[in-house]
Amino acid sequence: MVDLSSLIRDVPDFPKKGIVFKDITPLLGNAEALVQTADALAEPFGDKGVEMIAGVESRGFIFATMIAERLGAGFIPIRKPGKLPAEKIGRTYGLATIEIHTDAVEQGQKVLMVDDLLATGGTMSAACELVSHLGGDIVGCAFLVELCFLPGREKIGDYDIRALLKVGGE
């Protein structure tokens, strides 16, 4: 077993002063850690009948596609504006916006939401709103890292939220 936390480095003052960025690229470069991460993120949802995995751009795509393969599910990209070619809807949170194709989710389809990091919860909350608006049944949210000193869980709401690594709490 690889110590996943040892493969995530802190980068101070990135992308702006006062923020300590959690750089996962060392983990991504370690094949054993990457497999271990995908297995661990998929495991709690293996018996939930997940049909689709929604990954949030961009680092969420990495884990979402690996989890989709493990659970025998499809993949839904949730992207920044201007990246999706067909009819789409969007949600704005703070100063950012994300979008999803309007035909990405079928009514009642069971969807697992995936991103690399849970911080304030704005991105995942907006992503969940998009999937729910299209009729998806969200079975949970999976993250590699959760910053427990920020209100991400509260912002997302009452979903089954799983994080492999918790920073600053719990």
**Uncertain stretches:** none
Q: Summarize the amount of helix as a percent range.
A: 25-40%
Number of helices: 5
Order of SSEs, N→C?
Answer: EEHHEHEEEEHEHE
Radius of gyration: 15 Å
Major β-sheet annotation: 5 strands, parallel
* Beta-strand proportion: 25-35%
Mean pLDDT: 96
Based on Cα principal axes, name the global outline.
globular
- Structural class by SSE content: alpha/beta
- Strand order, main sheet: write it out: 4-3-7-8-9
Distance between the termini: 22 Å
Number of strands: 9
Task: Summarize, please.
By secondary structure, the chain is an alpha/beta fold. The chain has five helices and nine strands. Strand 5 (88-93) and strand 6 form a beta hairpin.
Task: Please provide a written account of the structure.
With 170 residues, the protein is of the alpha/beta class. The protein has 5 helices and 9 strands. It has helices at 25-28, 31-42, 59-71, 122-133, 152-156, and strands at 9-12, 20-23, 52-56, 74-78, 88-93, 96-101, 110-118, 137-147, 161-167. The strands form 3 sheets. A 5-stranded parallel sheet has the order 4-3-7-8-9, sandwiched between helices. The protein has a two-stranded antiparallel sheet with strand order 1-2. Strands 5-6 form a two-stranded antiparallel ribbon. Strand 1 (9-12) and strand 2 (20-23) form a beta hairpin. The radius of gyration is 15 Å and the shape is globular.
